[in-house]
Amino acid sequence: MAEETIFSKIIRREIPADIVFQDDQVTAFRDISPQAPTHILIIPNKLIPTVNHIAESDEALLGHMMVVAAKIAKQEGIDESGYRLIMNCNKDAGQEVFHIHMHLLGGKNLGRLIG
Ligand code: DGP
Asked: Which of 52, 73, 80, 114 is the most exposed place for a label (fewest CB within 10 A)?
């Protein structure tokens, strides 16, 4: 059984976060340390520690995260200017919180993916 992270507390609204969207499957909130004018994390309400733990039965959930990401990008007014979606997995990608999350970054030119 995977250990809960601070993100489970955000989902349950036990600690404060700037939540921009929530439904029965996912929660989206502004990153505490934004790397771009828009920096939002989209996470499943269910705890999945890393991308390696995603099961075939999670396919619809992951698809829903993408749909929500696109809706939020529109809401933020960056759908036409552009944005980047990133999911980090484990050490070499710099994953810090072991509850999968999709970073939605935009609002400026983000440059090349790998510098
Ligand atoms: P990653 O490196 O992909 O695991 O990114 C984790 C992100 O989570 C990082 O950009 C900072 C953000 N983060 C960590 N703790 C909190 C928190 O308590 N609240 C919010 N809003 N964001 C957090």
From this structure: 114
Residue closest by Cα to atom 17 of ligand 1: 32
CATH architecture of 4-104: 2-Layer Sandwich (3.30)
Kindly state the average pLDDT of the residues 44-67.
98
Residue labelled with tokens 């771009």: 36
Q: Which atom of ligand 1 is nearest to the CA of 17?
A: 21
Retrieve residue 108's tokens. 């400026």
Token pair for 111: 């440059």
CA distance 68 to 28: 9
Query: What is the distance in A from the centroid of ligand 1 to the CA of 5?
Result: 10
**pLDDT given at position 113:** 81
